[in-house]
Amino acid sequence: MIIDIIGAGSLGLLLAGKLIHAGAGIRIWCRSSEQAEALKQEGLTVGYEDGTAPVFIPGKEIFAAPASAFADTVLRDPGDWLVITLKQQAFHEKLPELLLPLKNKSLQMVCFQNGYGHLERLQEIMPYASIWAAVTTEAAKRKTLTKVIHAGRGETWIGEGGLGGSSPEPEIPVHAPAAISLVDILLTAGFSASVSKEVNTMIYRKLLINAVINPLTAVWRIQNGELLASEQRLLVMKELYAEAITVFDACGIAHEENAWDSIIEVCRATSGNISSMLADVLSSRATEIRWINGSIVDLAERRGIQVPLHRWICQLVEGMSARER
Ligand SMILES: NC(=O)C1=CN([C@@H]2O[C@H](COP(=O)(O)OP(=O)(O)OC[C@H]3O[C@@H](n4cnc5c(N)ncnc54)[C@H](OP(=O)(O)O)[C@@H]3O)[C@@H](O)[C@H]2O)C=CC1
Ligand SMILES: CC(C)(CO)C(=O)C(=O)O
Which residue spans adopt a coiled-coil conformation according to this UniProt entry (predicted)? Predict the structure, then answer.
């Protein structure tokens, strides 16, 4: 099986390293030729902070190239799966151009992004593609161009992301064998993975968690667990949560009855984490807020609902990462 991975960042390198180790044919598509060269020269290391032995893939076993060569290569030599591990901004701003020569192809694609809105966009760009969503609780942090830390083991669910405003769960589609074979290779690589009929519910569940935890940790510059340290912080979290739940209810999006408790539980379970949004802010990178809280604003607008807090927190966080004029 040939799996193309676009986006050689934290998640992309984690998947690439462990999948190559398990014997999968992986082609890594990087933004820069510098990273592609570094991977081929130095190899790829997946490290652990808990004493687990690292996985090392020698450079001579690695196919890595700049993403600009992706479409031509796929036209000549199609892969079986395209795994997209770009952040949302690159997904929306760069991917359409990269995929343009392939727009009439019926590729199997799986998207690992947090947030919402990208699956619909991808289906517009690639009308004949089978688009799958992956929700993962794995945690990865890229340290250098060739080294990634597998910071937390989690679970990955893959399902067809037929998303609209509400969340009816699609039946497992007829071409599910492709997804099953992808899951099988993830399992062989040591990930805990499954095909799920409930991936939409999981996408929205994660959206809710990220919409409460991520922007507040970014604004207050605190670890996830520190959100629980004061009544004032909990109050702001609860207000963001309540607005989001109003939107979910209006859109018919299913959510756990105790969704608030789940958010608190995630804060506890990841108490020492720097959220991905805070990490982006600290590194002066664009955040994914537009596709997290921004997507709640979009859903609210479609229903004529006001969500002033989500709108405001979006503007606040976007303002933090804006380049000076
Ligand atoms: N990391 C994690 O543990 C998890 C991440 N996710 C989600 O997965 C997605 C990816 O996250 P993560 O891996 O952390 O992000 P990273 O920023 O670490 O990786 C994104 C990668 O995309 C690359 N990229 C940017 N533009 C292009 C382009 N035009 N062509 C090819 N590659 C490009 C970047 O290259 P460069 O570095 O050269 O700019 C970078 O290597 C996000 O949506 C995130 O929310 C979900 C769950 C867990
Ligand atoms: C669950 C959480 C908040 C863990 O840090 C996360 O997904 C993120 O940081 O994006």
Answer: none
Diameter of the chain measured on Cα atoms: 59
166 CB contacts (<8 Å, ≥6 apart)? 251, 252, 253
DSSP label at 195?
A: E
Residue 308 CB contacts under 8 Å (≥ 6 apart), including other chains:
243
Distance 293 CA to ligand 2 centre (A): 14
Asked if domains 2-196 and 201-320 share a fold, the reply is no
Residue 17 vs residue 322, higher pLDDT:
17
Residue at 170: amino acid letter:
P
Q: How confident is the model at residue 174 (pLDDT cuts 50, 70, 90)?
A: very low
Ligand found nearest the CA of 88: 1
Domain 201-320 architecture: Orthogonal Bundle (1.10)
Residue nearest to atom 43 of ligand 1 (CA): 113
Which residue's alpha carbon is at the smallest distance from atom 2 of ligand 2?
A: 275
Extents of the domains making up the chain: 2-196, 201-320
Q: What's the CA gap between 211 and 232, in Å, rounded?
A: 17
Q: Which atom of ligand 2 is nearest to the CA of 288?
A: 10
Q: What distance in angstroms lies between residue 127's CA and the mean position of ligand 2's atoms?
A: 31
Superfamily of domain 2-196: NAD(P)-binding Rossmann-like Domain (3.40.50.720)
What per-residue confidence (pLDDT) applies to 177? 84
Strands (E), 48-183: 55-57, 63-66, 81-84, 108-111, 130-136, 139-144, 147-152, 155-160
- pLDDT, tens digit, for every residue of 83-114? 999 999 999 999 999 999 999 999 999 999 99
* 3-class SS string, 133-162: EEEECCEEEEEECCEEEEEECCEEEEEECC
- Regarding pTM above 0.80, the answer is yes
Ligand 1 centroid to Cα of residue 295, in Å, is 19
CA distance 13 to 9: 6
293 in Cβ contact with 315 (< 8 Å): no
